[in-house]
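Notebook, student rotation project (T.W.).
Task set for the rotation: take a protein with a known small-molecule partner, predict the structure of the complex, and write up what can be learned from the model alone. Partner molecule chosen: flavin mononucleotide. Sequence and SMILES entered below by T.W., checked by me.
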Amino acid sequence: MLDLKKEIVNPQAIRLSVAPMMDWTDSHCRVFHRALAPHARLYTEMVHANAVIHGDRARLLAMDPVEHPVALQLGGSEPALLAQAARIGAERGFDEINLNCGCPSDRVQAGRFGACLMREPALVAASVAAMIEACDVPVTVKCRLGVDDDHRFEVFLAFVDEVAAAGCTMFVVHARNAWLKGLSPKENREVPPLRYDWAYRLKRERPQLKILVNGGIATAEEATSHLEHADGSMLGRAAYHEPYVLHRIDTAWFGGELRSRAELLRSLRPYVEAELARGVFLKHITRHMLGLFHGERGGRAFRQVLSEGAHKPGADWSLIEQALAVTESFAARDAA
Ligand SMILES: Cc1cc2nc3c(=O)[nH]c(=O)nc-3n(C[C@H](O)[C@H](O)[C@H](O)COP(=O)(O)O)c2cc1C
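Predicted structure of the complex:
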């Protein structure tokens, strides 16, 4: 029987999402993205199952209630540990637990998780089954198309089928291979060619599965085009470096008024001031906002005011107003 708690049944809930990104998509970043994109599904940075179990949970699993819907991404390959971490994540209120099968870094390979798991579908299936058993929220997988120079669609499909048979109904497909030898993680996000057609074909051949497309999506138009072939678009670097694209997509797909960058930023004032009052440094919040005016007149000055001032002792909301004033002065000059 369909267990509604464990399935993502609302197609709107997965149309737009922001990718898990280590060192980037922390809670401050996600709160910022939430202000821009009220309907997006947000993902945490990857947290290793061991860290969830033994580490500083208050820090590693920090989450603000405005972030919902938000998924916790786990790394690991031991079913019992992943199950325990999934249970902890769900109990802390995460709406989905996602297993990383796409990260190619050496550290990850040494620990036998991330992208090298694409070669171990039975282990992934056992992990997913244990996680599903342990928690009451959907368990999903983020993967690549394959590893190294293995370009056989049937191998990719067999991986998905085995994991789906264990109960996973949603796959985020970073639509390129991971090359485990000779490429850095950064190169692994750029060099192996993108093959969206594989993600589309997966959706065609397994229509019962929810398939999100990820990799190289930079504009609202590109994000929209994937919806013709799959269930959702996940943006990573573009969302981070040019976050206003999230607002454009959210309003285009879900309705609502297109708000200005300044208005969106000012809506975060209560959050920023509450965090500062808790002792958080402004720089930890504003570092995620530097790209808000990317491509706009005054965008560089905005970035400069924030990056030069946010680390100074006592930096507070007034610095953000100062940065906004600079962009507004460019706009006023242009209008004159
Ligand atoms: C700084 C950075 C950190 C990343 N960390 C993770 C991670 O923790 N887990 C993961 O599954 N993918 C991670 N990725 C990969 C992204 O989730 C995404 O799959 C990839 O960047 C391709 O999407 P894009 O072209 O839209 O950026 C990371 C990417 C970047 C740029």
